[in-house]
């Protein structure tokens, strides 16, 4: 496993784990990388601090396998939660607001919203939450 700091075109920096550098390259080329903060799919590597090995008398409390298992568990639970949800893409903010205002039937949805749109929804009391793991939009799974 390898971890990269990634940056979207909106300058959000986040970490992502990959099986290898080529796995990162393949996912990026396929457009499968998504910013967890804004949903942007224009992703590149960000500058990273070098990894420095721990001193011999220090032990690492968390093995990479445990981190991978935890991330897989989170992703599986998120997938279960989204099973009954509809992808609405970039219409997320307007659809969530319409449901909150009673103009549309309330139902589970997920999609993309800008940081400004998400903040406005939260400020207005619209019940929304960010997803912990990136979601590949249905049109990009082919």
Account of the protein in words:
By secondary structure, the protein is an alpha+beta fold. The chain is 33% helix and 16% strand. It is built from 4 helices and 5 strands, in the order ββαβαβαβα. The chain has helices at 21-29, 64-82, 92-101, 115-123, and strands spanning 2-8, 13-18, 43-45, 86-89, 109-111. Strand 4 (86-89), helix 3 (92-101) and strand 5 form a beta-alpha-beta unit. The chain starts with a strand and ends in a 19-residue tail after the last helix.
Top keywords for this entry?
142 residues, 33% helix, 16% strand
State the distance separating the first and last CA atoms: 25 Å
Radius of gyration: 18 Å
Average pLDDT rating: 86
> How many individual helices?
4
Shape: elongated
Report the uncertain regions: none
Beta content: 15-25%
Strand-helix topology:
Elements: E1 2-8, E2 13-18, H1 21-29, E3 43-45, H2 64-82, E4 86-89, H3 92-101, E5 109-111, H4 115-123
Parallel strand pairs: 4-5
Antiparallel strand pairs: 1-2, 1-3
Short recap of the structure:
With 142 residues, the protein is an alpha+beta fold. The chain contains 4 helices and 5 strands.
């Amino acid at each position: 496993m390898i971890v990269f700091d990634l940056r979207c075109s909106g300058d959000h920096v986040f970490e992502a784990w990959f099986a290898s550098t080529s796995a990162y390259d393949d996912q990026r080329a396929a457009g499968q990388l998504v910013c967890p903060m804004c949903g942007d799919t224009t992703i590149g590597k960000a500058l990273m601090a070098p990894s420095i090995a721990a001193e011999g008398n220090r032990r690492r409390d968390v093995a990479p396998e445990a981190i991978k298992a935890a991330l897989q568990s989170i992703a599986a639970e998120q997938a279960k939660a989204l099973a009954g949800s509809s992808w609405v893409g970039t219409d997320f903010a307007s659809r969530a607001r319409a449901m909150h205002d009673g103009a549309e039937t309330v139902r589970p949805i997920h999609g993309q919203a800008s940081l400004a749109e998400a903040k406005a929804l939260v400020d207005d009391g619209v019940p929304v939450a960010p997803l912990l793991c990136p979601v590949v939009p249905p049109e990009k799974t082919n």
